[in-house]
Amino acid sequence: MSITTIFTRPLSFFRSSSRSRAKAESVAAPVLDFPNAPPDIRILVRQRQYAHIVRPQDGLQFDDESLKYAWKAIDHDMAYVPGGAVILQGEYATTTADGLSLIPQTLGTSDVESLFIDRWCVTNADYKRFVDEGGYDDVNLWPEQILTTVLQFVDQTQQPGPAGWAKGSPIVGTEAQPVTGVSWYEANAYAQWTGKRLPTSAEWQRAATWSLSSSDSLQECRYPWGNSFDPGFANTWASGRHQVASIHDFPKGNTPDGVRQLVGNVWEWINTQYMLAATEEVSMHATDPMAEIRGGAYDSYFHSHTTCQSRSADTLTARKPNIGFRCCFSATGLEPPDTSN
């Protein structure tokens, strides 16, 4: 068994090889269901809240049977990313003969601990469950200072939900697309609801690059599949779609361990504040805090904006049709079940 196989299918004994099941999953948002699981565990798995089982926040431990179902779901939905280091890139503002310019610069090396990261962005179907379960009314999921702002996070019919939805639901047929039109706060609230969190900038980059990087030189690939851009591998402007695609599309752009669409389709909210350096002659006037976004989107024109190292940013309350998110949680201290026997 190769190392790629290990990290792509770490708990492969749980997987089904049914062709009919694979065909059905290709057109719908993936939802696991274990009818034989205890009722409370079955609900947590269906709502992708299994992180609460393997890493309970109240310290109450689950039994082995419940843990088995949770790890089966994690194997299906998430990829293991081993710890390591990444080289973060950024930019600084300065004045040139052509006016204000952003100059690329290396920010430095950042160490990353091992983690589990979602194989695909949170879908409209996933987020619908959060909305239906009253996620917007749960004060424990939102910072106190923005509670009044949460009332403004409504859809086109003034119901709680993403900006592009209506009557508390996404457009029919878009269930398997990444949810968009959500602010950083909404993405963070959903992540907490599932027992996960948003990845940091270094964690996101590690997930996109580790399996094709040299551990000796820290030389990272530019894209999740290698160093050459291919419009058939990612939903950017060059692909010709010019709109959000299903999480099942563009499979050639997957990382070797099965993480989809880290580049293209939608930008992804990152749990890292965006800071722009500037030379002395440039005055910065930031009125609203900003978070990094990574990966580029369907409307990204320049390939240089959609590499594993490039970054952009938006204000925390921005609710744009080209920004989504995925979640992760730390693997430190967790022990998946032994699959050797």
UniProtKB/TrEMBL annotation:
Sulfatase-modifying factor enzyme-like domain mapped to chain residues: 77-327
Top-level taxon of the source organism: Bacteria
InterPro entries for the chain: CTDL_fold, Sulfatase_Mod_Factor_Kinase, SUMF_dom, SUMF_sf
Family annotation (PANTHER family): FORMYLGLYCINE-GENERATING ENZYME, SULFATASE MODIFYING FACTOR 1, 2
Annotated protein name in UniProt: SUMF1/EgtB/PvdO family nonheme iron enzyme
Organism: Roseiconus lacunae
